[in-house]
Amino acid sequence: MRKIRKLSFDELVSENKKALLKDAAFLDKIEERLEQRYKEEK
């Protein structure tokens, strides 16, 4: 059986953290845009 190098647990955690931070930043941007739009409509 060939040995395939698996990501260490720490590597997986840091990859997941990066992805989550990206998503969070994206959501923050959307939230800001929605708030601005809402304020403009008032």
TrEMBL record:
Pfam family, one: Fur_reg_FbpB
InterPro entries: SenN/SenS
Listed name of the protein: FbpB family small basic protein
Organism: Metabacillus mangrovi
